[in-house]
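Tutorial sheet, problem 5. The two components below are modelled jointly, 944 residues in total.
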Amino acid sequence: MKKNLTARTVIIVATILLCIYGIIGFPTSGAAVKENIAKNIRLGLDLKGGTHLVLEVQVQDAVKADADQAMDRLKDDLKKQNIQWTAMDRNDPQTVQDADKVEITIKGVPSTQSSDFRNVVNEHYSTYILTAVNSTDYTMKMKPSDLLDLKRDTVQRTMDTIGNRIDQLGLAEKSVQQYGRSGADYEILVQLPGVDDPARVKELIGTAAVLEIDDVKDGPFPTRDALLAQHGGVLPLNTKPVKAKPRGSSDGEQWYLVSKSPVISGREMRNARPGQDEYRKWETSFTLSQDGGRRFGRYTEANIGNRLAVVLDNQIVSVATIQSKIEDSGRITGLGSEEESDDLSKYLRSGSLPAGVKYNEERSIGPSLGADSIHSGIMAGIAGLIAVIIAMLLYYKRSGVNAVLALILNTVVLLAAISYFHAVLTLPGIAGVILTIGMAVDSNVLIFERIREELRSGKSVVAAVDAGFSKAWWTIVDTHVTTVVSCCFLFLFGEGPVKGFAVTLTIGLIANVFTAVFVSKTIFDYELSNQRQLGTLSI
Amino acid sequence: MELFKNTNFDFLGKKWPFIIASLVLTVAGLSSIAMKHGLRYGIDFKGGALMTVKFASAPPVEKIRSAMKGDVSVTTMTGGGAVNEVEIGTELANETQLAKNREDMEAALYNAFGQPNSGKLDLNNAGEQAIASRLRDPLAGAGVSLSEQQLHDLAGGITSYRDKQAGGLITDFNQLSSVPGVNQAVLGVLEGQCYLAPFHVLQVQVVGPKVGADLRNKAILATLYALAGMLVYIAFRFEWIYGLGAVIAVFHDTIITVGLFSIFNEEISMTVIAALLTLVGYSMNDTIVIFDRIRENLKLSRREPLDVVMNKAINQTLSRTIMTSGLTFLTVIALFLFGGPVLHGFSFALLCGIIVGTYSSVFIASPIVLFWHNYTDKKRVARVPVTAAPSRSEPARKTPSRAAK
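Model answer (structure tokens):
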């Protein structure tokens, strides 16, 4: 054991150097030390301040939009094939959980044409399953595998879009990731350290943006009742009344009657920008997806002179007249001001979210609170540590120095591991650090008490130290393994903060086995090997 | 210095007063929870909208209350380092309504205390970006030409001064003259474009009720799994009854601590859950140390009755128990006294947990093992009058099975 003292010392020194490098890097000045620490030890939002948002992607929107498109195409196809039908509609589930229930109902297909009808559907709508309700009525539902793909794709695209928009803030750090809460796989977690203005972030993300461009059938009317009165109190087939977003407070309400199924849905909107035309009039230009562009081209060509409404979240934000055929890029001209053009392009862009989002959680922690809690946390930590050090030195005298060194080294290794693993230190993580320090103190106390016992039973110093370490070893293993086992479960089944606690604690405990046993024993051995006449031990 | 040398207290003989005290505490805690209709959950677990606002002077609670519409609670924060802070919150609403409530609360605050119609920017609640874009043109207009980088440095300097040095609140524009890049001209522009509201929003939290319930269930579930995992490991290393004893003791600590939270009307938040996990780990550690010593002693002296062996083990580890608990207690006291409002619940839980966790190892976990062995021994003696010789070939460091005497 004594022989490999040099080897052990080398291992320890190398570890210390590696850890210190992990925390402070190669600093060239005092300021660089501070800077590197701030860079390497990443603090969580609760300590640093920032914005934390959990959004639920309303995947049912995407499923409904897909069904709407399928309905439009099916109507065209059936017309071409001269197949009759009396009604075609879909249901309207409102929650994420009901996304699977979206269903198209087709009624009144003559039984003589049923085989033709089946052929059309099976050939062109391979993502749907056709079920016959009776001889003339059918339902169409998306296949489970395609439904799953569509939902996943919707979440992914929402994440990409949100990520792109947040880039406009020009942040050094940001994280947009899927949030795997049980039974809710459609959530996205957005974390923005240092941004404590969630209103601005939400504005960028676009709150509940379901965008449609609808065909305007009639309007404007001052009230909903006036609109209904015009049509004899009954809404015409496939239309819906929509209110316009008030421009100023003085304007009265404006109601329009628009087509129920949109000409273009927000999913096909690729981009939109404010700008000015050749006469310095404000306008908004936009681009559509290829597929959307083709359909928009066909539609606008046939409907020049008709009006279109930009409907955001069931509110009309703009009404424009079709001047010419528009394919994949177009302009909405004649806007009143820069602000109006800016807003409209923002609305159009926000529509490119494939589905609406709902905020399930929002936290913003001001940096001053973060700074306060770090400051008081550190002050308390230092006060506690000093008290522990004094008590250890008083109670175990010279050997207490060992314990203190091991304790400090443990903290250093823990911080270095956080830096190397790119872990984030949060408030619950600090709880893990506190338990680590508690258990590190405990390991040392266990060993020292054991050495004292062995000394009391009359063993020589060297034998007592060896026996103390080897007997305490299994206790330390048991306590540490038990805690690490529990951490594994906390990590597997716990959520965010609980996970952070588990990670820090596990790292800390592994570090502690190294520092409290290996390092402390080496120091003892070193001291004892220097003492020629094996006399006393200050413990 | 040695405090507890060769002590020989009869701990297990005095177990009943402690077990009864534990039961009383448990019942008191549980009935407090029942009487108060459940625990006082923090926003993390019950859902709601909560704003923590710091005021420049003593917060005008009545004025805030009257400014808020609807069912809004306004409480002054006390304890820790909280100075002039209030919490404004609503709870129990669906996600969409919550988002609206939160906006209403913020708007009401600005209407009552800010200058909503002046068209100026509130410097005490603006972000770096907002300040930079607000100042860009006016600064250029005032003849202060800055590059984009310099502008952001200036805005960053102002927010950093506000958040770090001024504790979130600037009360006088002249305070800013110490910020690098701020000169008389810049100050003039600042005063023209901005105002200083007498409050600063420290924290906003909006948690949907679904998320809250889910977080709570997951935390409880994860803890239960962790306890089961520990039970299996201890059962494997010792005997299953040791695992059960340790887990019951830890469970007992948690129940009592949660009960104390109810009695003292403290709030259960996510950080408190972290503290509860810490105390589970701490108490488990304490129990295993004692169990380990019992196992060791059992191997050395097979002839002695179990309660004598246990008492000896507890006495032998007494010095370390007091030392470790005492030292950990010191740290937690420091945290409780100086840790500030954010760490208040956390340190309170640990404070209770360390006391309860230390005595539960001695007076709950060990008696459970003792009761069980006395029970099985009696049964075995009754059934098999002639005892079999204990097996001598036990594996080196495994199950310390007690053979019948």
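Marking note: Chain B touches chain A through 93 residues (CB under 8 Å). Full credit if you identified this.
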